[in-house]
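All the exercises in this workshop are built on plain-text protein records. An example says more than a description, so a record of this kind follows:
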Amino acid sequence: MEQTVPLKTLNLKNCSLIFIEVHSFVGLTCLSELNLENNMLESIIPGTFDPLVNVTKINLKDLFSLTNLDLSDIGLVEVMPRALYGLKTSKELHLNLNNLKHINNDTFVDMQSLELLDLNDNNLIKLDDKNFEGLINLKELRLNSNSINSISIKAFEGLNSLEILRIEDDEIQNIALGVLLITDSHIPIIRNASFLGLFNLLTLEIKNSTIENIEINALIGLFNLNNFQAKDIFRKIKVIPGFIFKDLFSLTNLDLSDIGLVEVMPRAFYGLKTSKELHLNLNNLKHINNDTFVDMQSLELLDLSDNNLIKLDDKNFEGLINLKELRLNSNSINSISIKD
């Protein structure tokens, strides 16, 4: 039978610990504070902290050699500012399955090597400015299954290496983010609903990307987007699929010039009802599919110059009832059909 030790505070600071046995804390169910500051631990075995069901404060400062820290499912209610200070080499931090309601600023300020932060299954309500300050190499942030209803405008500022952001099964009502800039990322694919919840986003710009695929519903929910720097996003994507822009109701100017496009599928621009300009010049388009522009009744300028178009068929430009300027120069057009 497991014996309970009525210890509430355990201070192991400066003990030169290099290893903790997985059952070391068995019986310490009354423990509320644990201090492991300034030891030589290289790893902590998953499950080591499981017996600490009532712990509310853990100090892990200056564990310089620790690369993977699992503090999941131990009932944590708060991580104090700089509690993780000194974990300069840590790659993964698991804080999932706890009772965290908020993130203190300066919590992760010294974790410049961290690549994975798991905050799934907590009780987080909002994300504030600078909550993730210092995580310059973070690649994956997990925030699924919280109660997040508000994300401030600078909540993700500085996460320049972020590739995967997971916010599912939350209650997001207000994300103040107006501008999202992602530079020098290594994102290979933009998956469905990647920006869902960013209702107030006005500008989306992804520079120097390695994106090779965009799923059909990747851009859903971006109803207010009016500045979309699409060229870098689509640079390695040779075919624009149908309905890819269907939720971008506010977009007025779309520039897809000089990115090596070989085909635009029917209804690719469906939903762009307010767009005034569309630039498809300097590509490798050989033909225009019918129904390509069918939903673009506000379009005034369409630039198809410097492509490889051979002929123009009936209904190629159906739907462009307000088009004022059509540019077709520098193609190889030898046939223009006449509607009976």
User: Anything to note?
Assistant: The two ends are 92 Å apart (CA to CA). Residues 7 and 31 are 6 Å apart (CA to CA). The chain has two domains: 1-174, 177-340. The chain has a mean pLDDT of 85.
